[in-house]
Amino acid sequence: MSIREELNQWMLENLTGEFEQIRWRGGPGDEDSSPELRRAWEQKFGEAGWIGLQWPKEYGGRDLSLMDFVEFNEEYARHGGPGRAGHIGETLMAPTILAYGTQAQKERFLPGIKNGTELWCQGYSEPNAGSDLSNIKTKARLVDGHWVIDGQKIWTSLAHESDWIFVLARAEEGTKGRDGLVFLLVELDQPGIDIRPIHQISGTAEFNEVYFTEAKTEADNIIGEVGEGWKIAMALLGFERGASTLGQQMMFQNELNLIIKTANENGRANDPSLRRRIAEAHAGLKVMRFNALRMLNGTQDGSTSKEGYISKIFWATWHRDLGELAMDVIGADAEIIEDELSPMQKLFLFSRADTIYAGTNQIQRNIISERALGMPKEPRGNTNG
Amino acid sequence: MPPFPFQEDHEMIREAVKGWLSDWEDGGKTLHRVAKDGHGFDRAAWEGFARDQGMAGISIAEQYGGADMGLLGRTVIMEETGYTLFSAPFFSTCVLAADIIEAFASEDDKADLLSKIASGDIIISALDGRGKLSLEDNKLNGTISPATDAVHADLILVAIQNKDNDIVLTGYSPNTAGLSVTPYASIDPTRSQAKVSFDNVSLSDGQAIGKTDETAFSQTLQIAHGALAAECVGGGQRCLDMTLDYANQRVQFGRQIGSFQSVKHKCADMFIALESARSASYFAASPDLDGDRTAKFEAALIAKNYASEAFFKIAGDAIQMHGGIGFTWEYPLHYFFKRARSNRALFTSSEDGFQMLADQIGLKSNTSAIMGK
Ligand SMILES: Cc1cc2nc3c(=O)[nH]c(=O)nc-3n(C[C@H](O)[C@H](O)[C@H](O)COP(=O)(O)OP(=O)(O)OC[C@H]3O[C@@H](n4cnc5c(N)ncnc54)[C@H](O)[C@@H]3O)c2cc1C
Questions:
Q1: Interatomic CA distance for residues B86 and B28, integer angstroms
Q2: Domain named Acyl-CoA dehydrogenase/oxidase C-terminal: which ranges (chain B) (predicted)?
Q3: The domain boundary residue, chosen from B119, B146, B181
Q4: Which residues of A are known to be catalytic?
């Protein structure tokens, strides 16, 4: 049986009962919906062996090929599978541990991700280190077999729902920029950590400020060496691209289908300018898909191919435009909030974040012009912020 | 490894064509000559390319003497001819006419015409006469303009809609009584254009090639038009290459202009448009779609519209990033800008194309504006 058929059957049997209510829910922009239930779903999903399919067999994976993994993700999205509470762990933390972690770290951390019992969040950004990530100020000192951490992270998605955070911190006093950083794994439930939700554009709170006041983690909970934090942090971001983008495109397709349905029902499908925008959105999504296939079939050595460079800014901009289109297709009624934000209103508001996180559109353009096109590097000022 | 979804043999063709075309264009000098004296056609070069290099038959079936390299084969050629604006009827004859003949002609006509196309022994201008030509009492009247590559065509293949809404395909020699071909200067001077008039031309004076229905004809036409996406990608790549060369070399305010972020970001946007157009173009030619005509039709629609919009944007930005030099006749960038504009307006304009795509994805409409449907 193909992986697609296998998952199809399992979803039919398991995305039922109480889990019905989280079908289609919990994706980006909807991550505050039913956290308890989504956590339960993550565990059920893990128990069934669906997490870590691409991992080597010795860590409980299935060594799944890229194309099979693509099919798997598409099938999940086709069923309206709930937004995965464990996605940061599975897609970012696990590959980083597999690539750079010690044997002991693999044994300690992979099972929690695989079983859906330990959820992760990403502690990179700080008040003065956003696009200029290397300007981080959070400090880590090694004291009596523990790292002691002081500082502040911000915009940390789902910290309030997570068990662990990976933290980029400065370990060597007096270092600047990319030097002297460490990549630490830190348990959130401890007296030295204070998590304060930040309300976002939608009024809901999915990201947080995370304050560290002599927070502790064991000396062994470092990935790589002292001074290698930057390298590890960048490698982790590299895992963000890849097969999951095709699953994401299935969700985009579902959103576009809703827009088409709405336009047909309310008659705006007759408006030539909206017709054209919808047709362009459809074309853009197809282009995105083939671009991903080019990317996945291209360089296997981890280097970024041409199409790899455009992938983030392309989908982010496309999705943001889709949000605007969704509202325009509804028209003036799109202003009205019934009980909670409708899926289209959420799409409109949350897609504003797509062009900001994981490298803003401006940063993407810098990267494209400097790395893909070899243009002169941006001059840097003093980073004393 | 050749870029997905191409194979090794496509890459070999690409290298050969690239080299040949680079000699042909002679650093841009040839374009000036062709634009001025040739009305967008370089016969000697075409014969060299089509016959000696054997490129005319790239996508034609082996049984007719072609290389049978599928849509990907012609994608390679169109991309490289777009990069140099090779002024020759490859698209008209080897793509558009060949596709129509392949789809609708009798076996005898195929054997005759496709073999001639493959060997480079015939130039065919394929024209869509729907809505432009009237057919009454077996007499054709009306004018088709622009008619690409009609000036030097050995055969003018025209699609006519009859009273029963069938599409009748007929081939005319340019000497047919009542038929006149008048060349005109086009804003895109590296592509040959003309006005073709039918003044009481007898249907029976032409060679009956085939008959089909509106849907089948439209699909075949759009699939052929899809090949223009590759031309747009090639042309767009050239514009970006020229812009990057210039941005690295031109100094203002004591810096290379390529170090200014607004210039860098513009180049990044050109690159994003270009690479996504490339994805659309390769997708439309991908063998994955073989056997599924509807999917092929849709992919071709997307590719043509998407890539021609991208090319126009890239070419416009390229002129802007060049300053005054980009506005200069001597500097060949303007030819690309002009080709970009004509690719966007001809062979189903992108406006009509996106409306057709809207139909295709099930957007209901009570006024379908396209092609008199
Ligand atoms: C919904 C959401 C979830 C997030 N989740 C997380 C998370 O889980 N963990 C985490 O660590 N972070 C997270 N982030 C933070 C995100 O990574 C940062 O917001 C992002 O990197 C931008 O940094 P900033 O907000 O400080 O903006 P700034 O860097 O201050 O940027 C402000 C503006 O200046 C522009 N700019 C900055 N530098 C340049 C330059 N060199 N050239 C041109 N323009 C420039 C930017 O493009 C932007 O338009 C999240 C953000 C959002 C919106």
A1: 11
A2: 218-346
A3: B119
A4: 240
